[in-house]
Amino acid sequence: MTDISRIEAAAFRLQGHALRTPLLGSALLNEIAGRRVWLKAECLQHTGSFKFRGGWAAVSALSPEARAQGVIAYSSGNHAQGVALAAQRHGAPCVIVMPADAPPVKIANTRDYGAEVVLYDRARDNRDAIGARIAAERGLTLIKPFDDAEVIAGQGSCGLEIAEQATELGIREADVLVCCGGGGLASGVALALESRAPGLRVRTAEPEGFDDMARSLASGRVQRNDAASGSICDAILTPAPGALTFPILSRLAGPGLVVSDAEALRAMALAWLRLKVVLEPGGAVALAAALFRPDQIAGEDVICIGSGGNVDLAVFRQALARLD
Amino acid sequence: MTDISRIEAAAFRLQGHALRTPLLGSALLNEIAGRRVWLKAECLQHTGSFKFRGGWAAVSALSPEARAQGVIAYSSGNHAQGVALAAQRHGAPCVIVMPADAPPVKIANTRDYGAEVVLYDRARDNRDAIGARIAAERGLTLIKPFDDAEVIAGQGSCGLEIAEQATELGIREADVLVCCGGGGLASGVALALESRAPGLRVRTAEPEGFDDMARSLASGRVQRNDAASGSICDAILTPAPGALTFPILSRLAGPGLVVSDAEALRAMALAWLRLKVVLEPGGAVALAAALFRPDQIAGEDVICIGSGGNVDLAVFRQALARLD
Known about the structure:
The structure is a homodimer of 324-residue chains.
Chain A: H1 4-14, E1 23-24, H2 27-33, E2 36-41, H3 51-61, H4 64-69, E3 71-74, H5 78-90, E4 94-99, H6 104-112, E5 116-120, H7 127-138, E6 141-142, H8 149-168, E7 174-179, H9 184-196, E8 200-207, H10 212-219, H11 245-252, E9 254-259, H12 261-275, H13 281-292, E10 301-306, H14 313-321
Parallel strand pairs in A: 2-10, 3-4, 3-6, 4-5, 7-8, 7-10, 8-9
Antiparallel strand pairs in A: 1-2
């Protein structure tokens, strides 16, 4: 189970390895939102997303023996890169199981971070069976993307930083909007804020059609998404809240927020224009909610996490086109 | 005269107002450069460039009476925005004298930061005469873009942060590449490093055809550029080194580096891809030198300042096209 002391332990192990990302603001964005907007720029984190925190926390928590055997993860995206770099820096072997039709740049990046990439055919192969076989053969430890106590603890280190940075800015009460797939980042941040900054409350942000967490929080029971794809916010399209993450968020998080893909693109464009950072669509939904759902937010300040910046050129160009 | 105590005093006044910008790195950029590359991301500073530091240092150093009268600056770019926001936050009236053909977005931004913009015709009007008349009529203090002891001190606060951040990373010896127009940032940083991190040495970076500082450093005398325009690095196209900045750099800076506009664009693209930050061409020349002039740099680490990110959409698209 993840609690504040597990988060603090993860943060301690991350010191000097993860970047303490800045909390960015812009007077010109504040005008759009009608309040002060702060972006916790996790897109600047190593590998371009917060996932490095959880990957590092999980790898560094292993026994020396388990680490020497190696780790394995299933991911076509940010979790793959986060785990791969964390494993490389620990000298741990790393296998990433990815669909063969994943974007070539993501496969290449994962390999550049030293991982062995095993490709499978989405239509024909059983990913879990392939991964389980390799893990058993080589004695690898599976690192899940969100439903893992150490991964949640690592993401929680981002919440400790938000608590410190809000205190430095004199912010005692605010909603903290978190881009949400399975809920690993949101639940880790919620636990950190509960202990360190109880006036800050996590609220999840999701794309339309993939608002499983918002519906689950509203109903008090785990709800699933109807579709598996169909939004540009690829990093956060998970089928349902996690078994570990949902109970935490059900207890600590406020009502979920939902934005359209078009709003995510517009938020990416404004982050480029006003904050000089690169967000991917799934990393921009929290900022989009801060900018375009002002009536659903209370208070003079709103903090949102810009959770990742690994975006393809074509999609980024779509975002910039919103400024023409 | 600017010395380390004036820089420390400026840094003290900037505490809680300027962002302590992060030092970003990427394993994948290191491969290109053949050494570890660190980007001091001043593009994330308020108003999108380091100029906010100097503007704040100058406005905050004024007597209460002078501040109440107000300030004036000539600039079509980053200095205008930095001074305007600093003045606004001090409640000081601010006039910015800009050419009427400046990009509309820069005029609009400067107004959004609360400044009164006075436009002049480049072909017909005498900018200095217009500014001098307004300053005399209203009792405004002129804040020059680089040849001002307080402005240099404010930019030097960036150097104090680099010294601290390098120490945290265990970097004792490295070249620090600084995008260079008139030399305000480079000279302030050089003075800060001389006191706080003497193993770090400033080297200027400039665009081809506008390498007045490199030639001046090489010859030991102030050299001027032949042309006033003709590079996309608009932020750093000054005619010659400053009277205050050149003696500092002549004493403290290593040989200047020069890159092409095409290399600046390529560095912008790689900063987008690998570091998730937005650089303008003039803010990318130091990174370009780190990546594309490896033979002119010594040591295992190189630090470069990404000095600004206020780039027009059309130019940014040119940079992204280098990735196709």
